[in-house]
Amino acid sequence: MRALFWLLDSAISLYVWALIIAAVLSLLLAFNVLDSRNRFVWAVADFFYRVTEPVLRPIRRRLPDLGGVDLSPLVVILVLQALRIFLATTLAPALGVYAY
Protein backbone atom coordinates (compact mmCIF):
# COMPACT_ATOMS: atom_id res chain seq x y z
CA MET A 1 0.00 0.00 0.00
CA ARG A 2 2.89 2.33 0.78
CA ALA A 3 4.28 1.77 -2.71
CA LEU A 4 0.93 2.79 -4.20
CA PHE A 5 0.95 6.07 -2.29
CA TRP A 6 4.55 6.69 -3.33
CA LEU A 7 3.66 6.00 -6.97
CA LEU A 8 0.65 8.32 -6.86
CA ASP A 9 2.67 11.08 -5.17
CA SER A 10 5.46 10.71 -7.73
CA ALA A 11 2.99 10.81 -10.64
CA ILE A 12 1.40 13.99 -9.29
CA SER A 13 4.84 15.54 -8.83
CA LEU A 14 5.89 14.65 -12.37
CA TYR A 15 2.69 16.11 -13.79
CA VAL A 16 3.28 19.36 -11.89
CA TRP A 17 6.72 19.55 -13.49
CA ALA A 18 5.19 18.82 -16.90
CA LEU A 19 2.78 21.72 -16.39
CA ILE A 20 5.61 24.07 -15.45
CA ILE A 21 7.73 23.01 -18.43
CA ALA A 22 4.76 23.35 -20.80
CA ALA A 23 4.01 26.87 -19.52
CA VAL A 24 7.63 28.01 -19.85
CA LEU A 25 7.93 26.39 -23.26
CA SER A 26 4.80 28.13 -24.52
CA LEU A 27 6.16 31.49 -23.33
CA LEU A 28 9.49 30.87 -25.04
CA LEU A 29 7.68 29.96 -28.26
CA ALA A 30 5.35 32.96 -28.02
CA PHE A 31 8.26 35.39 -27.66
CA ASN A 32 10.25 33.68 -30.46
CA VAL A 33 13.09 32.68 -28.17
CA LEU A 34 12.71 29.14 -29.50
CA ASP A 35 12.09 28.43 -33.16
CA SER A 36 9.01 26.26 -33.59
CA ARG A 37 10.21 25.26 -37.08
CA ASN A 38 13.04 23.30 -35.47
CA ARG A 39 11.96 19.65 -35.53
CA PHE A 40 13.20 18.85 -31.99
CA VAL A 41 11.60 21.95 -30.46
CA TRP A 42 8.36 21.18 -32.25
CA ALA A 43 8.38 17.56 -31.03
CA VAL A 44 9.02 18.56 -27.41
CA ALA A 45 6.36 21.29 -27.53
CA ASP A 46 3.87 18.92 -29.12
CA PHE A 47 4.53 16.27 -26.45
CA PHE A 48 3.95 18.69 -23.57
CA TYR A 49 0.88 20.13 -25.31
CA ARG A 50 -0.65 16.66 -25.68
CA VAL A 51 0.15 15.73 -22.07
CA THR A 52 -1.17 18.90 -20.44
CA GLU A 53 -3.94 20.18 -22.71
CA PRO A 54 -6.66 17.63 -21.73
CA VAL A 55 -6.45 18.87 -18.14
CA LEU A 56 -5.97 22.57 -18.92
CA ARG A 57 -8.75 22.94 -21.51
CA PRO A 58 -11.72 22.53 -19.10
CA ILE A 59 -10.08 24.93 -16.63
CA ARG A 60 -9.56 27.53 -19.36
CA ARG A 61 -13.24 27.38 -20.29
CA ARG A 62 -14.28 28.16 -16.71
CA LEU A 63 -11.78 30.93 -15.98
CA PRO A 64 -12.70 34.48 -16.96
CA ASP A 65 -10.89 36.13 -19.87
CA LEU A 66 -7.90 38.01 -18.46
CA GLY A 67 -6.67 39.54 -21.69
CA GLY A 68 -4.26 36.87 -22.85
CA VAL A 69 -2.98 35.79 -19.43
CA ASP A 70 -3.46 32.06 -18.94
CA LEU A 71 -3.81 31.12 -15.27
CA SER A 72 -5.02 27.57 -15.90
CA PRO A 73 -1.61 25.93 -15.19
CA LEU A 74 -1.48 27.74 -11.86
CA VAL A 75 -4.98 26.56 -10.94
CA VAL A 76 -4.18 22.95 -11.86
CA ILE A 77 -0.89 23.04 -9.93
CA LEU A 78 -2.67 24.39 -6.83
CA VAL A 79 -5.30 21.64 -7.06
CA LEU A 80 -2.64 18.95 -7.50
CA GLN A 81 -0.64 20.24 -4.54
CA ALA A 82 -3.79 20.26 -2.42
CA LEU A 83 -4.40 16.66 -3.49
CA ARG A 84 -0.85 15.70 -2.46
CA ILE A 85 -1.34 17.32 0.94
CA PHE A 86 -4.70 15.57 1.37
CA LEU A 87 -3.19 12.20 0.50
CA ALA A 88 -0.22 12.67 2.83
CA THR A 89 -2.08 14.05 5.84
CA THR A 90 -5.55 12.55 5.75
CA LEU A 91 -5.89 9.49 3.61
CA ALA A 92 -2.53 7.80 4.22
CA PRO A 93 -2.67 7.90 8.05
CA ALA A 94 -6.32 6.79 8.01
CA LEU A 95 -5.30 3.68 6.10
CA GLY A 96 -2.29 3.12 8.31
CA VAL A 97 0.16 4.02 5.58
CA TYR A 98 2.60 6.84 6.10
CA ALA A 99 3.42 8.73 2.93
CA TYR A 100 7.00 9.63 3.81
From TrEMBL:
Gene Ontology cellular-component annotations: membrane
Record-linked InterPro entries: CCB3/YggT
Source organism, top-level taxon: Bacteria
Transmembrane segments: 12-34, 74-99
Keyword line: Membrane, Transmembrane, Transmembrane helix
Pfam families in the record: CCB3_YggT (PF02325)
Descriptive protein name: YggT family protein
